[in-house]
Amino acid sequence: MSSIETIHVDGVWLPAASGETREVLDPADATTLQLVSEGGAEDADAAVAAARRAFDGGTGAWPRTAVAERSALLRRVADLLQRDREEIALIESRDTGKTLEEGRVDVDDVTNAFRYFADLVMNESGGRVVDAGSPDVHSIVVHEPVGVCALITPWNYPLLQASWKIAPALAAGNTFVIKPSEVTPLSTVHLVKLLVEAGLPAGVANIVTGAGLPVGQRLAEHPDVDLFSFTGGLVSGTKAGAAAVSGAKKIALELGGKNPNVVFADACATDEGFDTAVDQALNAAFIHSGQVCSAGARLIIEESVRDRFVSELARRAEKIKLGRGTEDGVECGPLVSQQQLDKVEAYVASALAEGAQLRCGGTRPKPSDVRPATGYFYAPTVLDGCHREMKVIREETFGPILTVETFSTEDEAVALANDTEYGLAGAVFSGDTARARRVAARLRHGTVWINDYHPYLPQAEWGGFGKSGIGRELGPAGLDEYRESKHIYENLRPEPVRWFAG
Protein backbone atom coordinates (compact mmCIF):
# COMPACT_ATOMS: atom_id res chain seq x y z
CA MET A 1 0.00 0.00 0.00
CA SER A 2 1.38 3.43 -0.95
CA SER A 3 1.45 6.15 1.68
CA ILE A 4 -0.24 9.54 1.45
CA GLU A 5 1.43 12.82 2.39
CA THR A 6 -0.32 14.00 5.53
CA ILE A 7 2.01 16.77 6.68
CA HIS A 8 0.90 20.19 5.46
CA VAL A 9 3.34 23.07 5.97
CA ASP A 10 3.13 26.53 4.40
CA GLY A 11 0.59 25.40 1.82
CA VAL A 12 2.43 22.25 0.68
CA TRP A 13 1.65 18.58 1.38
CA LEU A 14 4.81 16.76 2.38
CA PRO A 15 6.18 13.42 3.52
CA ALA A 16 7.88 13.32 6.90
CA ALA A 17 11.38 14.80 6.94
CA SER A 18 12.61 11.41 8.13
CA GLY A 19 10.75 9.60 5.35
CA GLU A 20 9.02 7.44 7.97
CA THR A 21 5.40 6.31 7.71
CA ARG A 22 2.85 4.84 10.08
CA GLU A 23 0.08 2.30 9.57
CA VAL A 24 -3.41 3.52 10.45
CA LEU A 25 -5.45 0.44 11.33
CA ASP A 26 -9.11 -0.36 10.75
CA PRO A 27 -10.27 -1.33 14.27
CA ALA A 28 -13.08 -3.47 12.87
CA ASP A 29 -10.68 -6.08 11.44
CA ALA A 30 -7.17 -4.96 12.51
CA THR A 31 -6.03 -4.52 8.90
CA THR A 32 -4.11 -1.55 7.50
CA LEU A 33 -6.44 1.23 6.45
CA GLN A 34 -3.83 3.73 5.26
CA LEU A 35 -0.13 4.56 5.43
CA VAL A 36 0.50 8.15 6.54
CA SER A 37 3.52 10.38 7.12
CA GLU A 38 5.09 9.90 10.54
CA GLY A 39 6.30 13.34 11.47
CA GLY A 40 8.90 14.27 14.06
CA ALA A 41 10.32 17.30 15.84
CA GLU A 42 11.84 18.64 12.61
CA ASP A 43 8.42 18.66 10.93
CA ALA A 44 6.88 20.35 13.98
CA ASP A 45 9.55 23.06 13.85
CA ALA A 46 8.89 23.69 10.15
CA ALA A 47 5.14 23.93 10.75
CA VAL A 48 5.53 26.38 13.63
CA ALA A 49 7.87 28.52 11.55
CA ALA A 50 5.29 28.64 8.74
CA ALA A 51 2.51 29.57 11.16
CA ARG A 52 4.74 32.25 12.70
CA ARG A 53 5.45 33.83 9.30
CA ALA A 54 1.77 33.74 8.38
CA PHE A 55 0.87 35.48 11.63
CA ASP A 56 3.66 38.06 11.68
CA GLY A 57 3.38 39.02 7.98
CA GLY A 58 2.39 42.41 6.61
CA THR A 59 -0.94 44.14 6.19
CA GLY A 60 -2.41 41.25 4.24
CA ALA A 61 -1.63 38.62 6.88
CA TRP A 62 -4.46 36.55 8.32
CA PRO A 63 -4.68 38.37 11.69
CA ARG A 64 -5.25 41.63 9.84
CA THR A 65 -7.82 40.18 7.45
CA ALA A 66 -11.24 41.79 7.81
CA VAL A 67 -13.58 40.00 10.19
CA ALA A 68 -16.15 39.68 7.40
CA GLU A 69 -13.62 37.82 5.25
CA ARG A 70 -12.67 35.44 8.07
CA SER A 71 -16.34 34.77 8.76
CA ALA A 72 -17.05 34.13 5.08
CA LEU A 73 -14.22 31.59 4.90
CA LEU A 74 -15.61 29.65 7.86
CA ARG A 75 -18.97 29.55 6.11
CA ARG A 76 -17.36 28.23 2.93
CA VAL A 77 -15.74 25.48 4.99
CA ALA A 78 -19.13 24.60 6.49
CA ASP A 79 -20.61 24.28 2.99
CA LEU A 80 -17.73 22.05 1.87
CA LEU A 81 -18.21 19.82 4.92
CA GLN A 82 -21.81 19.25 3.89
CA ARG A 83 -20.76 18.62 0.31
CA ASP A 84 -18.39 15.88 1.50
CA ARG A 85 -20.64 14.66 4.31
CA GLU A 86 -20.87 11.02 3.23
CA GLU A 87 -17.18 10.75 2.36
CA ILE A 88 -16.04 12.23 5.67
CA ALA A 89 -18.53 10.17 7.69
CA LEU A 90 -17.16 7.02 6.06
CA ILE A 91 -13.57 8.08 6.82
CA GLU A 92 -14.49 8.72 10.45
CA SER A 93 -16.35 5.42 10.77
CA ARG A 94 -13.53 3.37 9.25
CA ASP A 95 -10.82 5.17 11.23
CA THR A 96 -12.44 5.27 14.70
CA GLY A 97 -14.77 2.28 14.52
CA LYS A 98 -17.92 4.27 15.27
CA THR A 99 -21.09 3.68 13.29
CA LEU A 100 -21.62 5.45 9.99
CA GLU A 101 -24.60 7.31 11.42
CA GLU A 102 -22.46 8.60 14.29
CA GLY A 103 -19.98 9.78 11.66
CA ARG A 104 -22.74 11.69 9.87
CA VAL A 105 -23.81 13.31 13.13
CA ASP A 106 -20.20 14.34 13.76
CA VAL A 107 -19.96 16.03 10.34
CA ASP A 108 -23.18 17.93 11.00
CA ASP A 109 -21.95 19.02 14.44
CA VAL A 110 -18.65 20.19 12.94
CA THR A 111 -20.58 22.14 10.30
CA ASN A 112 -22.63 23.82 13.05
CA ALA A 113 -19.46 24.76 14.94
CA PHE A 114 -17.95 26.52 11.93
CA ARG A 115 -21.20 28.38 11.26
CA TYR A 116 -21.58 29.35 14.92
CA PHE A 117 -18.14 30.93 15.18
CA ALA A 118 -18.61 32.61 11.80
CA ASP A 119 -21.74 34.29 13.16
CA LEU A 120 -20.29 35.01 16.60
CA VAL A 121 -17.27 36.93 15.37
CA MET A 122 -19.38 38.88 12.84
CA ASN A 123 -21.95 39.98 15.43
CA GLU A 124 -19.45 41.47 17.85
CA SER A 125 -19.04 45.20 18.31
CA GLY A 126 -15.82 47.07 17.70
CA GLY A 127 -14.81 46.91 21.34
CA ARG A 128 -16.11 47.50 24.85
CA VAL A 129 -16.23 51.16 25.82
CA VAL A 130 -14.88 51.79 29.32
CA ASP A 131 -16.12 54.84 31.22
CA ALA A 132 -12.96 56.65 32.33
CA GLY A 133 -14.88 59.30 34.26
CA SER A 134 -13.81 62.13 31.95
CA PRO A 135 -15.23 63.47 28.68
CA ASP A 136 -11.64 64.06 27.57
CA VAL A 137 -10.78 60.33 27.55
CA HIS A 138 -11.82 57.68 25.06
CA SER A 139 -11.19 54.23 26.56
CA ILE A 140 -12.01 50.87 24.93
CA VAL A 141 -11.11 47.21 25.38
CA VAL A 142 -10.54 45.34 22.12
CA HIS A 143 -9.68 41.71 21.36
CA GLU A 144 -6.75 40.53 19.29
CA PRO A 145 -5.63 37.04 18.24
CA VAL A 146 -3.21 35.22 20.54
CA GLY A 147 -0.81 34.26 17.75
CA VAL A 148 0.46 30.81 16.79
CA CYS A 149 -1.70 28.05 18.28
CA ALA A 150 -0.62 24.44 18.79
CA LEU A 151 -3.68 22.17 18.78
CA ILE A 152 -3.62 18.57 20.00
CA THR A 153 -6.71 16.41 19.45
CA PRO A 154 -7.77 12.92 20.66
CA TRP A 155 -8.54 9.70 18.83
CA ASN A 156 -12.21 9.26 19.78
CA TYR A 157 -13.71 12.34 18.08
CA PRO A 158 -10.89 13.56 15.84
CA LEU A 159 -12.95 15.68 13.44
CA LEU A 160 -15.24 17.14 16.09
CA GLN A 161 -12.46 18.06 18.50
CA ALA A 162 -10.43 19.58 15.66
CA SER A 163 -13.36 21.84 14.75
CA TRP A 164 -13.83 23.02 18.34
CA LYS A 165 -10.28 24.40 18.17
CA ILE A 166 -9.79 25.34 14.51
CA ALA A 167 -13.04 27.28 14.02
CA PRO A 168 -12.56 29.74 16.92
CA ALA A 169 -8.82 29.98 16.29
CA LEU A 170 -9.41 31.10 12.70
CA ALA A 171 -12.38 33.31 13.61
CA ALA A 172 -10.16 35.19 16.06
CA GLY A 173 -7.39 35.63 13.45
CA ASN A 174 -4.81 33.10 14.64
CA THR A 175 -2.60 30.71 12.71
CA PHE A 176 -2.13 27.13 13.90
CA VAL A 177 -0.39 23.79 13.80
CA ILE A 178 -2.60 20.80 14.57
CA LYS A 179 -1.46 17.34 15.59
CA PRO A 180 -4.29 14.81 15.44
CA SER A 181 -3.99 11.52 17.27
CA GLU A 182 -1.65 9.18 15.43
CA VAL A 183 -4.35 6.52 15.78
CA THR A 184 -7.10 8.41 13.91
CA PRO A 185 -5.64 11.24 11.78
CA LEU A 186 -7.54 10.82 8.51
CA SER A 187 -10.58 13.07 8.95
CA THR A 188 -8.42 15.94 10.22
CA VAL A 189 -6.26 15.66 7.11
CA HIS A 190 -9.44 15.94 5.03
CA LEU A 191 -10.55 19.00 7.01
CA VAL A 192 -7.25 20.77 6.33
CA LYS A 193 -7.75 20.05 2.62
CA LEU A 194 -11.15 21.76 2.84
CA LEU A 195 -9.59 24.79 4.54
CA VAL A 196 -7.17 25.06 1.63
CA GLU A 197 -9.98 24.64 -0.89
CA ALA A 198 -11.97 27.36 0.87
CA GLY A 199 -9.12 29.82 0.24
CA LEU A 200 -7.21 29.96 3.51
CA PRO A 201 -3.79 31.53 2.84
CA ALA A 202 -0.68 29.35 2.94
CA GLY A 203 0.85 28.95 6.37
CA VAL A 204 -2.30 29.72 8.34
CA ALA A 205 -3.30 26.06 8.72
CA ASN A 206 -0.56 23.46 9.22
CA ILE A 207 -0.84 19.81 10.21
CA VAL A 208 1.82 17.37 11.41
CA THR A 209 0.81 13.73 11.78
CA GLY A 210 2.86 11.73 14.24
CA ALA A 211 3.13 10.56 17.82
CA GLY A 212 2.81 12.64 20.98
CA LEU A 213 6.48 12.04 21.50
CA PRO A 214 8.11 13.80 19.78
CA VAL A 215 5.56 15.95 17.86
CA GLY A 216 3.13 16.90 20.61
CA GLN A 217 5.88 17.49 23.14
CA ARG A 218 7.81 19.70 20.71
CA LEU A 219 4.72 21.80 20.01
CA ALA A 220 4.07 22.17 23.74
CA GLU A 221 7.57 23.46 24.48
CA HIS A 222 8.20 25.40 21.26
CA PRO A 223 9.19 29.02 22.03
CA ASP A 224 7.31 30.39 18.99
CA VAL A 225 3.96 28.88 20.03
CA ASP A 226 1.70 31.36 21.87
CA LEU A 227 -1.17 29.06 22.85
CA PHE A 228 -1.29 25.33 23.54
CA SER A 229 -4.68 23.61 23.43
CA PHE A 230 -4.91 19.91 24.29
CA THR A 231 -7.78 17.44 24.48
CA GLY A 232 -6.97 13.94 25.69
CA GLY A 233 -5.97 11.89 28.71
CA LEU A 234 -5.06 13.26 32.13
CA VAL A 235 -1.51 11.87 32.30
CA SER A 236 -0.31 12.98 28.87
CA GLY A 237 -2.26 16.24 29.07
CA THR A 238 -0.78 17.38 32.37
CA LYS A 239 2.71 16.50 31.18
CA ALA A 240 2.33 18.45 27.94
CA GLY A 241 0.60 21.28 29.77
CA ALA A 242 3.51 21.57 32.19
CA ALA A 243 5.90 21.91 29.26
CA ALA A 244 3.70 24.63 27.76
CA VAL A 245 3.37 26.53 31.06
CA SER A 246 7.14 26.51 31.52
CA GLY A 247 7.31 28.66 28.39
CA ALA A 248 4.62 31.05 29.74
CA LYS A 249 2.18 30.03 27.02
CA LYS A 250 -1.55 30.41 27.26
CA ILE A 251 -2.97 26.91 27.77
CA ALA A 252 -6.32 25.14 27.49
CA LEU A 253 -6.68 21.51 28.62
CA GLU A 254 -9.66 19.16 28.35
CA LEU A 255 -8.66 16.00 30.20
CA GLY A 256 -11.71 13.75 30.31
CA GLY A 257 -14.17 12.78 33.00
CA LYS A 258 -15.69 10.12 35.22
CA ASN A 259 -19.27 11.13 34.79
CA PRO A 260 -22.25 10.32 37.05
CA ASN A 261 -25.75 9.58 35.81
CA VAL A 262 -28.01 10.03 38.84
CA VAL A 263 -31.44 8.36 38.56
CA PHE A 264 -34.11 8.99 41.21
CA ALA A 265 -36.96 6.56 41.77
CA ASP A 266 -39.53 9.21 40.82
CA ALA A 267 -38.07 9.24 37.29
CA CYS A 268 -39.28 5.63 37.01
CA ALA A 269 -42.77 6.14 38.50
CA THR A 270 -44.46 5.48 35.16
CA ASP A 271 -43.73 2.86 32.51
CA GLU A 272 -42.80 5.62 30.09
CA GLY A 273 -40.47 7.25 32.59
CA PHE A 274 -38.82 3.93 33.43
CA ASP A 275 -38.31 3.11 29.75
CA THR A 276 -36.82 6.56 29.09
CA ALA A 277 -34.43 6.41 32.03
CA VAL A 278 -33.17 2.95 31.07
CA ASP A 279 -32.80 3.93 27.42
CA GLN A 280 -30.87 7.08 28.35
CA ALA A 281 -28.60 5.11 30.70
CA LEU A 282 -27.69 2.84 27.77
CA ASN A 283 -27.12 5.88 25.56
CA ALA A 284 -25.00 7.57 28.22
CA ALA A 285 -22.69 4.61 28.69
CA PHE A 286 -22.41 2.77 25.37
CA ILE A 287 -22.49 5.30 22.51
CA HIS A 288 -19.24 4.85 20.52
CA SER A 289 -18.53 1.83 22.76
CA GLY A 290 -18.11 4.15 25.73
CA GLN A 291 -15.14 5.93 24.15
CA VAL A 292 -16.53 9.36 25.02
CA CYS A 293 -15.03 11.81 27.50
CA SER A 294 -18.51 12.67 28.79
CA ALA A 295 -19.82 9.07 28.90
CA GLY A 296 -22.20 8.37 31.76
CA ALA A 297 -20.08 5.47 32.97
CA ARG A 298 -21.27 5.73 36.61
CA LEU A 299 -24.94 4.88 37.10
CA ILE A 300 -25.98 6.14 40.54
CA ILE A 301 -29.46 4.71 41.12
CA GLU A 302 -31.90 5.07 44.02
CA GLU A 303 -31.93 1.84 46.03
CA SER A 304 -35.70 1.30 45.85
CA VAL A 305 -35.66 0.85 42.03
CA ARG A 306 -32.18 -0.55 41.65
CA ASP A 307 -33.05 -4.25 41.10
CA ARG A 308 -35.69 -3.66 38.47
CA PHE A 309 -33.68 -0.96 36.73
CA VAL A 310 -30.38 -2.82 36.54
CA SER A 311 -32.03 -6.06 35.43
CA GLU A 312 -33.71 -4.32 32.51
CA LEU A 313 -30.57 -2.36 31.71
CA ALA A 314 -28.48 -5.53 31.53
CA ARG A 315 -31.13 -7.29 29.41
CA ARG A 316 -31.05 -4.50 26.83
CA ALA A 317 -27.27 -4.16 26.93
CA GLU A 318 -26.90 -7.82 25.98
CA LYS A 319 -28.94 -7.15 22.84
CA ILE A 320 -26.72 -4.33 21.53
CA LYS A 321 -25.52 -5.40 18.09
CA LEU A 322 -21.77 -5.20 17.60
CA GLY A 323 -20.00 -5.09 14.26
CA ARG A 324 -18.31 -2.95 11.64
CA GLY A 325 -19.72 0.55 11.90
CA THR A 326 -20.57 0.76 8.20
CA GLU A 327 -22.85 -2.31 8.31
CA ASP A 328 -26.62 -1.86 8.49
CA GLY A 329 -28.12 -2.57 11.89
CA VAL A 330 -24.85 -2.29 13.82
CA GLU A 331 -25.31 -0.27 17.02
CA CYS A 332 -21.78 -0.35 18.45
CA GLY A 333 -18.46 -0.65 16.69
CA PRO A 334 -15.13 -1.89 18.02
CA LEU A 335 -12.75 -0.24 20.40
CA VAL A 336 -10.16 1.84 18.62
CA SER A 337 -7.09 -0.37 19.17
CA GLN A 338 -5.67 -3.48 20.76
CA GLN A 339 -4.20 -1.26 23.46
CA GLN A 340 -7.63 0.08 24.34
CA LEU A 341 -9.13 -3.41 24.32
CA ASP A 342 -6.45 -4.64 26.72
CA LYS A 343 -7.09 -1.66 28.97
CA VAL A 344 -10.84 -2.35 29.14
CA GLU A 345 -10.27 -6.02 29.93
CA ALA A 346 -7.92 -5.04 32.75
CA TYR A 347 -10.49 -2.67 34.28
CA VAL A 348 -13.20 -5.36 34.26
CA ALA A 349 -10.83 -7.91 35.79
CA SER A 350 -9.85 -5.51 38.57
CA ALA A 351 -13.50 -4.69 39.32
CA LEU A 352 -14.45 -8.36 39.63
CA ALA A 353 -11.44 -8.98 41.87
CA GLU A 354 -12.60 -6.12 44.09
CA GLY A 355 -16.09 -7.57 44.47
CA ALA A 356 -18.18 -6.16 41.62
CA GLN A 357 -21.02 -8.33 40.32
CA LEU A 358 -21.07 -8.97 36.57
CA ARG A 359 -24.61 -8.46 35.23
CA CYS A 360 -23.75 -8.75 31.53
CA GLY A 361 -20.78 -8.61 29.17
CA GLY A 362 -17.35 -8.78 30.71
CA THR A 363 -15.80 -10.51 27.73
CA ARG A 364 -14.95 -10.28 24.08
CA PRO A 365 -17.84 -11.53 21.96
CA LYS A 366 -17.69 -14.99 20.46
CA PRO A 367 -16.35 -15.00 16.88
CA SER A 368 -19.74 -16.28 15.74
CA ASP A 369 -21.52 -13.28 17.35
CA VAL A 370 -19.68 -10.45 15.62
CA ARG A 371 -18.41 -9.66 12.14
CA PRO A 372 -15.56 -9.32 11.40
CA ALA A 373 -14.34 -11.52 14.22
CA THR A 374 -10.79 -10.13 14.12
CA GLY A 375 -11.72 -6.63 15.29
CA TYR A 376 -11.20 -5.00 18.70
CA PHE A 377 -14.70 -5.74 20.00
CA TYR A 378 -15.82 -5.93 23.63
CA ALA A 379 -19.31 -6.72 24.86
CA PRO A 380 -21.23 -3.93 26.65
CA THR A 381 -20.63 -4.61 30.33
CA VAL A 382 -22.68 -3.79 33.45
CA LEU A 383 -20.95 -4.10 36.82
CA ASP A 384 -23.25 -4.00 39.87
CA GLY A 385 -22.39 -3.57 43.54
CA CYS A 386 -19.60 -1.07 42.92
CA HIS A 387 -18.10 1.33 45.46
CA ARG A 388 -15.76 4.32 45.51
CA GLU A 389 -12.63 2.37 46.41
CA MET A 390 -12.72 0.41 43.15
CA LYS A 391 -10.31 1.41 40.41
CA VAL A 392 -13.09 1.11 37.83
CA ILE A 393 -15.03 3.82 39.71
CA ARG A 394 -12.11 6.20 40.19
CA GLU A 395 -10.45 6.10 36.77
CA GLU A 396 -11.66 6.91 33.26
CA THR A 397 -12.09 3.53 31.54
CA PHE A 398 -12.99 4.81 28.07
CA GLY A 399 -14.80 1.64 27.08
CA PRO A 400 -18.22 -0.07 27.21
CA ILE A 401 -18.26 -0.42 31.00
CA LEU A 402 -21.16 0.81 33.14
CA THR A 403 -20.76 0.66 36.92
CA VAL A 404 -23.69 0.73 39.36
CA GLU A 405 -23.77 2.50 42.73
CA THR A 406 -26.83 3.11 44.90
CA PHE A 407 -28.14 5.82 47.22
CA SER A 408 -31.08 6.34 49.57
CA THR A 409 -31.21 10.13 50.05
CA GLU A 410 -30.73 13.18 47.88
CA ASP A 411 -27.69 14.28 49.86
CA GLU A 412 -26.14 10.86 49.41
CA ALA A 413 -26.75 11.00 45.65
CA VAL A 414 -25.03 14.38 45.39
CA ALA A 415 -22.11 13.23 47.52
CA LEU A 416 -21.57 10.16 45.34
CA ALA A 417 -21.84 12.14 42.11
CA ASN A 418 -19.29 14.69 43.29
CA ASP A 419 -16.91 12.09 44.74
CA THR A 420 -14.50 12.19 41.82
CA GLU A 421 -11.32 14.00 40.88
CA TYR A 422 -12.94 14.87 37.57
CA GLY A 423 -15.85 17.18 36.85
CA LEU A 424 -16.66 17.21 33.14
CA ALA A 425 -20.33 16.20 32.89
CA GLY A 426 -23.21 14.49 34.64
CA ALA A 427 -26.96 14.01 34.55
CA VAL A 428 -29.99 13.93 36.84
CA PHE A 429 -33.15 11.98 36.05
CA SER A 430 -36.15 12.89 38.19
CA GLY A 431 -39.89 13.40 37.82
CA ASP A 432 -39.66 16.24 40.35
CA THR A 433 -38.52 19.38 38.51
CA ALA A 434 -37.57 21.22 41.69
CA ARG A 435 -35.45 18.31 42.87
CA ALA A 436 -33.78 17.86 39.49
CA ARG A 437 -32.79 21.53 39.32
CA ARG A 438 -31.69 21.56 42.94
CA VAL A 439 -29.41 18.56 42.43
CA ALA A 440 -28.09 19.92 39.13
CA ALA A 441 -27.09 23.12 40.90
CA ARG A 442 -25.11 21.14 43.48
CA LEU A 443 -23.17 18.98 41.01
CA ARG A 444 -19.58 20.09 40.45
CA HIS A 445 -19.47 19.34 36.75
CA GLY A 446 -19.09 21.60 33.72
CA THR A 447 -22.18 20.28 31.92
CA VAL A 448 -25.23 18.86 33.69
CA TRP A 449 -28.16 17.37 31.83
CA ILE A 450 -31.62 17.02 33.35
CA ASN A 451 -33.66 14.09 32.02
CA ASP A 452 -31.33 13.72 29.05
CA TYR A 453 -27.75 12.72 28.25
CA HIS A 454 -25.08 13.78 25.73
CA PRO A 455 -26.57 16.68 23.70
CA TYR A 456 -24.45 19.81 23.50
CA LEU A 457 -24.79 23.17 21.78
CA PRO A 458 -22.01 25.05 19.98
CA GLN A 459 -23.22 28.25 21.62
CA ALA A 460 -22.84 26.81 25.15
CA GLU A 461 -19.44 26.44 26.81
CA TRP A 462 -17.92 22.99 27.24
CA GLY A 463 -15.30 22.09 29.82
CA GLY A 464 -14.89 20.70 33.29
CA PHE A 465 -14.09 21.25 36.93
CA GLY A 466 -11.20 19.70 38.86
CA LYS A 467 -8.91 17.43 36.88
CA SER A 468 -11.18 17.57 33.84
CA GLY A 469 -9.13 20.51 32.67
CA ILE A 470 -8.51 24.21 32.29
CA GLY A 471 -10.53 26.61 30.17
CA ARG A 472 -13.61 26.19 27.99
CA GLU A 473 -14.40 25.32 24.39
CA LEU A 474 -17.45 26.42 22.40
CA GLY A 475 -19.65 29.40 23.25
CA PRO A 476 -18.31 32.95 23.64
CA ALA A 477 -15.68 31.69 26.11
CA GLY A 478 -14.46 29.27 23.45
CA LEU A 479 -13.68 32.22 21.20
CA ASP A 480 -12.07 34.15 24.05
CA GLU A 481 -9.59 31.28 24.58
CA TYR A 482 -8.00 32.31 21.27
CA ARG A 483 -7.86 36.06 21.94
CA GLU A 484 -6.02 38.56 24.07
CA SER A 485 -7.72 41.61 25.57
CA LYS A 486 -6.12 44.99 24.95
CA HIS A 487 -7.04 48.24 26.70
CA ILE A 488 -6.62 51.38 24.54
CA TYR A 489 -6.71 54.62 26.53
CA GLU A 490 -6.84 57.79 24.43
CA ASN A 491 -6.43 61.26 25.94
CA LEU A 492 -8.44 63.60 23.70
CA ARG A 493 -6.99 66.78 25.28
CA PRO A 494 -3.35 66.10 26.14
CA GLU A 495 -1.57 68.63 28.33
CA PRO A 496 1.48 68.64 30.63
CA VAL A 497 1.10 66.67 33.83
CA ARG A 498 3.56 68.80 35.88
CA TRP A 499 4.32 65.87 38.18
CA PHE A 500 7.97 66.88 38.37
CA ALA A 501 8.83 70.43 39.25
CA GLY A 502 11.89 70.68 37.01
TrEMBL record:
Q: Where is the Aldehyde dehydrogenase domain?
A: 13-488
Q: Which SUPFAM superfamilies match?
A: ALDH-like
The active-site annotation reads: 254
Write down the Pfam families for this protein, in alphabetical order.
Answer: Aldedh
Keywords from the named record: NAD, Oxidoreductase
Pathway of this protein?
Answer: Amine and polyamine biosynthesis; betaine biosynthesis via choline pathway; betaine from betaine aldehyde: step 1/1
Q: Per its UniProt entry, which superkingdom is the organism in?
A: Bacteria
PROSITE patterns to which the protein is assigned, alphabetical: ALDEHYDE_DEHYDR_CYS (PS00070), ALDEHYDE_DEHYDR_GLU (PS00687)
Q: Which family does the similarity line name?
A: Belongs to the aldehyde dehydrogenase family.
Q: What is this protein called?
A: Aldehyde dehydrogenase family protein
Biological source species: Streptomyces decoyicus
